[in-house]
Design a protein that fits this description.
This protein is mostly helical and 80 residues long. It has helices at 3-16, 21-28, 32-48, 54-61, 65-79. It starts with a helix and ends with a helix.
Length: 80
Amino acid sequence: MPLLEDRLVRILELRKLGMNEEQIASALELSPDIVKDYEIRISEEIRKYPHNSPALLGTNLGLSHLVVELYKEYLSKSIA
Protein backbone atom coordinates (compact mmCIF):
# COMPACT_ATOMS: atom_id res chain seq x y z
CA MET A 1 0.00 0.00 0.00
CA PRO A 2 1.48 3.39 -0.95
CA LEU A 3 2.37 5.92 1.74
CA LEU A 4 -0.68 8.13 1.09
CA GLU A 5 -3.03 5.18 1.45
CA ASP A 6 -1.29 4.06 4.63
CA ARG A 7 -1.66 7.55 6.06
CA LEU A 8 -5.32 7.82 5.09
CA VAL A 9 -6.12 4.48 6.68
CA ARG A 10 -4.26 5.47 9.85
CA ILE A 11 -6.02 8.86 9.95
CA LEU A 12 -9.35 7.11 9.62
CA GLU A 13 -8.47 4.66 12.40
CA LEU A 14 -7.59 7.56 14.69
CA ARG A 15 -10.77 9.44 13.74
CA LYS A 16 -12.78 6.39 14.75
CA LEU A 17 -11.05 6.57 18.14
CA GLY A 18 -12.38 10.12 18.51
CA MET A 19 -9.20 12.04 17.81
CA ASN A 20 -9.29 15.51 16.28
CA GLU A 21 -6.95 16.89 13.60
CA GLU A 22 -4.36 18.16 16.07
CA GLN A 23 -4.21 14.85 17.93
CA ILE A 24 -3.98 12.87 14.71
CA ALA A 25 -1.27 15.16 13.37
CA SER A 26 0.73 14.75 16.55
CA ALA A 27 0.34 10.97 16.55
CA LEU A 28 1.44 10.71 12.90
CA GLU A 29 4.05 13.47 13.10
CA LEU A 30 2.28 15.54 10.45
CA SER A 31 0.95 19.07 10.44
CA PRO A 32 -2.76 19.49 11.16
CA ASP A 33 -3.08 21.17 7.76
CA ILE A 34 -1.86 18.03 5.99
CA VAL A 35 -4.36 15.89 7.88
CA LYS A 36 -7.12 18.33 6.96
CA ASP A 37 -6.05 18.47 3.30
CA TYR A 38 -6.00 14.67 2.99
CA GLU A 39 -9.47 14.36 4.44
CA ILE A 40 -10.95 17.23 2.47
CA ARG A 41 -9.65 15.84 -0.80
CA ILE A 42 -11.18 12.42 -0.37
CA SER A 43 -14.44 13.57 1.23
CA GLU A 44 -15.07 16.21 -1.45
CA GLU A 45 -14.63 13.64 -4.22
CA ILE A 46 -16.99 11.21 -2.49
CA ARG A 47 -19.61 13.88 -1.84
CA LYS A 48 -19.29 15.35 -5.33
CA TYR A 49 -19.82 11.97 -7.00
CA PRO A 50 -21.81 9.89 -4.50
CA HIS A 51 -23.02 7.42 -7.14
CA ASN A 52 -19.61 6.64 -8.58
CA SER A 53 -18.18 3.29 -7.67
CA PRO A 54 -15.30 3.14 -5.19
CA ALA A 55 -13.12 1.89 -8.06
CA LEU A 56 -13.86 4.97 -10.17
CA LEU A 57 -13.46 7.33 -7.21
CA GLY A 58 -10.21 5.59 -6.35
CA THR A 59 -8.95 6.07 -9.90
CA ASN A 60 -9.84 9.77 -9.74
CA LEU A 61 -8.04 10.13 -6.40
CA GLY A 62 -5.11 7.86 -7.15
CA LEU A 63 -6.15 5.51 -4.35
CA SER A 64 -7.30 1.93 -4.10
CA HIS A 65 -11.01 1.24 -4.05
CA LEU A 66 -10.57 -0.27 -0.56
CA VAL A 67 -9.46 3.04 0.94
CA VAL A 68 -12.34 4.83 -0.77
CA GLU A 69 -14.80 2.24 0.55
CA LEU A 70 -13.52 2.78 4.10
CA TYR A 71 -13.98 6.54 3.81
CA LYS A 72 -17.42 6.21 2.20
CA GLU A 73 -18.52 4.03 5.10
CA TYR A 74 -17.04 6.42 7.66
CA LEU A 75 -18.62 9.48 6.05
CA SER A 76 -22.04 7.83 5.82
CA LYS A 77 -21.91 6.97 9.54
CA SER A 78 -20.64 10.39 10.62
CA ILE A 79 -23.46 12.15 8.74
CA ALA A 80 -26.20 9.90 10.11
